[in-house]
Amino acid sequence: MFNLKFSKTMKDVQWSFISLATASFAHLLLRIVLGKELGPSGLGLYTLVFTIYMFGMQYAAFGISSALIKYVAEYNDDLPQITGFVSSGIVGSIVTGSFMSVLMYLLSGFISIQFFHNPEMVDLLKITALCFPFIAMQKAVLGTLNGLRKMKWYAIVNIAQHGSVMAVSIALVMLLNMGVKGAVIGLVAPTIVVGPLSLILIREYFASEQAVLRTVLKKVLWFGFYIVLADSIGMLNVQIDSLMVGHFMNEIEVGYYAVAILFVEGLRLIPDSVQKIITPAIANYHGKNDYRNINKLIKISVLRVFVITLFASLSILLLGQFLIEVLFREDFLSAYEPLLILLVGSLIYGPISSINGTLPGIGKVNVMFKISLICALMNVVLNIFLIPKYGITGAAIATSTSLIFTALVRVYFIKLYIPKLPYIA
Fold first, then answer.
1. CA gap 68, 101 in Å, rounded
2. Quick one: which of 39, 72, 172, 320 is 20 to 30 A from 142 by CA?
3. Of the candidates 228, 173, 189, 231, which has an alpha carbon nearest to the alpha carbon of residue 353?
């Protein structure tokens, strides 16, 4: 019985991997083009805008996607329950996305001038603000498809989003010479189109009973509240280095550091793919009190992801300088030293990140939030102390240290709430 389910899991992992691989390829190719066409300064400016967009997206989506993954998977045999959760999730995402859009538009001047001392960012952030309702809507659709284990359609939506962003952005930058503004428009315009179109895939789960929607929406938003706090703090843990480099230094240094981060992000491809499948599976097993299969999934995921991450890290260690020169320019070789430091943290954090959905999957989302908060505070403090003195190398040291600490803390709490894990005994 378990073998059949695991076979389905492996097929889903393949679709998840294809989805994330396409996203990573689009992300890589776009940044290579920006690096070559716009240099370190242009790439750095786009990186800052994109990082702020990522933070805004977390609050726009408000954790509704994660809530839908959990509840849709948990009630996978109860169509009325699924319909209620999906409909409430879509309504909630439109509301939270619209609120975030207005807030970002109003704060664009303060963020650009007061924090980053860069007036050029003001208009770019205002353009970015337009897409938040649509990306929130799309995230709710992806959460539903993930919870339903319809990973083929999940992959198609992701491929459409990232592929169109890459194509439009490159066209505007290379063919129309629109610079960073063209790249930002290329991010926003496809999102406005793909978001509403993705609703077609889950239209059979829409309901109109207002009483049901209000009741379920409260449950979804309450769960999402903890998720958005944990995810945004988790993202702060990953992105604070780029933001602090932008604050203490300039967009050129951000451009160098962005190249180092780009290689490390490739290492997250496998654990992120696995996590997309493990999270709903754990939620489903938890609903049945089947901790035996939860333990199996965790053990297999961590061990296999570690082997793959180790091999990839060694490859980057040996070929890193060559790849930076070939893919970008010799100007970007300053990225190699921080890249080596970041590899250490990613090697340890990567396998554990493949099971990041374990605590939310068993209902311990508040614990996940507290862990993320502690680790993020540590990362912020380290970056504040190290970046002014050591520059982007200090940012890499702070991030790697925080990633290792985060991994150890998460292992402790997973072991606490799901006992008898032989690989961490």
1. 22
2. 172
3. 231
Measured distance CA(178)–CA(186) in Å, rounded: 10
Q: Which amino acid is at 22?
A: T
**What would the two tokens of residue 303 be?**
């061990």
Q: What angle do CA 365, 368, 373 make, to 5 degrees?
A: 130
d(CA 425, CA 415): 8
146, with CB counted inside 10 A (0-12, 13-18, 19+), is: buried
Q: Are 178 and 185 in contact (CB under 8 A)?
A: yes
Instruction: From first to last of the 425 residues of the chain, give the pLDDT tens digit.
Output: 344 444 566 676 677 778 877 887 887 888 888 888 888 888 889 988 998 998 888 888 888 887 888 778 777 777 777 888 888 888 888 999 999 999 999 999 999 998 888 899 999 999 999 999 999 999 999 988 888 878 888 889 989 999 999 999 999 999 998 999 999 999 999 999 999 999 998 888 776 666 556 667 777 777 777 777 767 776 777 788 888 888 888 888 888 898 898 888 878 877 877 777 777 777 777 777 777 888 888 888 888 889 988 998 899 899 888 888 888 878 888 889 999 999 999 999 988 888 877 787 777 777 877 887 888 888 899 999 999 999 999 999 999 998 899 899 988 888 888 765 444 43
Q: CA 394 to CA 237: how far, in whole Å?
A: 15
| DSSP per-residue letters across 74-112 | HTTT-HHHHHHHHHHHHHHHHHHHHHHHHHHHHHHHIII
**Type of residue at 361:** G
Using alpha carbons, list the distances in angstroms from residue 276 to 50, 144, 191: 23, 12, 21
Cβ-contact 134, 97 below 8 angstroms:
yes
